[in-house]
Design brief:
The complex is a heterodimer.
Chain A: H1 2-6, H2 8-41, H3 45-60, H4 63-76, H5 83-109, H6 112-120, H7 125-164, H8 168-177, H9 183-212
Helix pairs in contact in A: 2-3, 2-5, 2-7, 2-8, 3-5, 4-5, 4-7, 5-7, 6-7, 7-8, 7-9, 8-9
Chain B: H1 2-7, H2 13-43, H3 49-56, H4 63-101, H5 104-118, H6 122-135, H7 142-168, H8 171-179, H9 184-214, H10 226-237, H11 240-271
Helix pairs in contact in B: 3-4, 4-5, 4-7, 4-9, 4-10, 5-7, 6-7, 7-9, 8-9, 9-11, 10-11
Classes of the chains: A mainly alpha, B mainly alpha.
Chain lengths: ~220, ~290
């Protein structure tokens, strides 16, 4: 356990790097996932097809394969960047498929009667969407969206392992491999870093869930 | 399309025209992007026979060796996935039973273990197994480190799936058992668990998709599954994009098939209602996340 104290600055920098990856990927995947969900429920067939294809591809491919494909593929398309951004992009693409499905199922869970009632009262499409459908969909979307983001925090370790470097997991790997610290103690510190992120997220999520829960 | 019926009225002639126009515009944009990507890739020489031949052309000299490697990778992946599934099912069932039957003083321990393991990233569990076990004198083959790492995470997920299944059963099922004079363990074994498995079969198959995907993390400890195999192939053939496209397609085929199987089982189960509860009504735990 001495590792954690001796190498504390390294752990902190790893934690911050993980946090950076997670913040960028979370924002990216929430935005991209919501757009894709809008595609999937839109009345325009080509957009629906893109949404469906995106989800099928990224939900069924392992994150490691996505990351390698992004890192090798984007430069060939003329998009160059650091491994950090390729890692974030891979994690974003992968997570956005899950975000899309969560948002879509939230919209689907709103009973048709709600929209019909809104129409009957003479609300326009935009009005019924913004004040009837989406507020209700949001409530159902929050719990699954929260677990998607928590899973994403854990998946950031894969992005680290694949070569972003400097994140919590990579710190653990270099401390055990190169510097010869005992694996158990070192990895315990790494784990602690992830739990600091995931446990409060889980508790916050449970609170939010309770607050948003309504009988339907 | 349930979504369409919630959000939109049946389109009239004007709306149909608008949809048609936006379809054409969107289709044109999509097509343009695809063409642009293809032109760009072609200009980088990504469509040459030298790069695709070893993967797709049986007359190519490298075709045989490459697909032998992929075959081995498939066997390696499926071996790890099946072993993980078996162990995770056994341990997960025991954990779920412990959580349901344990007295209050012991239950917090089970809950603690489950919650802790759920928070552990799978990569770390695998890396941990590969690094810590040899240090405590357990020298196993790489396959077992991968299986142990994957099982650590998946057994608690399966435990939660089964627990959710048990909780979704009507109380009358257990009560009927008790009134027949069965003990707690007997009720659990012969009444609740069989039904919970049935109800949760679709969720369990979906979890298998996650397990299959996660075996790819074996590359971190040099287990020769698809990602590691792909990296070996790339070193000689220098065709990363093509190789990864093939690997991705293999995974998509396997997992899409499993996903369809889960949907099929779910439909079948909700059609012939021999169980006390409809799988569609059983609340699935929020575990399906982003695949571990």
């Amino acid at each position: 356990m001495g590792v954690l104290i001796e190498q504390f600055p390294l752990y902190v920098s790893g934690f911050l790097q993980t946090l950076r990856i997670c913040v960028f990927a979370a924002i990216g995947s929430l935005v991209l996932g919501t757009i894709l969900a809008a595609f999937r429920v839109s009345p325009v067939p080509p957009l629906r097809a893109i949404g469906a294809a995106w989800v099928t591809v990224f939900r069924n491919t392992p994150l490691a394969v996505v990351l390698f494909a992004v890192a090798f593929g984007l430069p060939e398309l003329g998009i160059n960047g650091s491994y950090f951004w390729f890692g974030v992009a891979g994690l974003t693409f992968y997570t956005s498929a899950f975000v899309c499905e969560a948002v879509r199922s939230g919209i689907n869970s709103v009973p048709a009667g709600q929209a019909e009632a809104a129409r009957a009262m003479g609300l326009t499409f935009t009005q019924s969407l913004s004040s009837i459908i989406l507020p209700q969909a949001f409530r159902t979307v929050v719990p699954p969206l929260g677990s998607v983001i928590i899973a994403m925090i854990k998946n950031s370790a894969i992005a680290g392992a694949f070569g972003i470097g400097g994140d919590l997991f990579s710190v653990g790997v270099s401390l055990t491999s190169a510097q010869g610290y005992a694996a158990a103690g070192t990895l315990f510190g790494v784990l602690l870093g992830y739990l600091v992120l995931t446990i409060p997220a889980g508790i916050g999520l449970a609170r939010l869930e309770k607050k948003l829960a309504v009988a339907r | 399309m349930a979504a369409t019926s919630v959000l939109f009225d049946a389109p009239g002639p004007k709306a149909r025209t608008r949809t048609l126009i936006s379809s054409i515009v969107a289709g044109a944009i999509v097509l343009a992007v695809i063409v642009l990507v293809i032109v760009q890739l072609a200009s980088q020489g990504q469509f040459t026979a030298a790069r695709w031949g070893p993967l797709l052309d049986p007359t190519n000299g490298d075709f045989g060796p490459v697909w032998t490697l992929f075959g081995n990778a498939l066997v390696a992946t499926l071996t790890a996935a099946v072993l993980t599934l078996v162990f995770a099912l056994v341990i997960g069932t025991l954990l779920a039973m412990a959580r349901v039957t344990a007295s209050k003083t012991w239950r917090w321990l089970v809950v603690g273990v489950v919650e802790f393991l759920r928070g552990v990233p799978v990569v770390i569990a695998i890396f941990f197994a590969a690094r810590v076990l040899p240090q405590v004198g357990l020298d196993l083959s790489i396959l077992w480190y991968l299986v142990i790492g994957l099982t650590l995470y998946n057994c608690v997920i399966i435990a939660e799936i089964i627990r959710a299944g048990i909780n979704s059963l009507p109380r009358g099922q257990a009560e009927a058992g008790y009134s027949l004079g069965l003990t707690r363990g007997q009720v659990l074994r012969s009444i609740l668990l069989p039904q919970a498995f049935r109800v949760m079969l679709p969720a369990l198959i979906s979890q298998l998709v996650v397990i299959v995907k996660d075996t790819s993390l074996g590359f971190i400890i040099s287990y020769e599954e698809f990602v590691r195999t792909a990296n070996i192939i790339i070193q000689t053939l220098q065709n990363p994009i093509q190789t990864y496209v093939v690997v991705a397609v293999i995974f998509i085929l396997i997992n899409y098939g499993l996903g369809k199987l889960a949907e099929f089982v779910e439909r079948r189960l909700s059609r012939n209602k021999k169980t006390a509860i409809d799988p569609a009504d059983a609340e699935e735990p929020e575990l399906v996340g982003a695949g571990g």
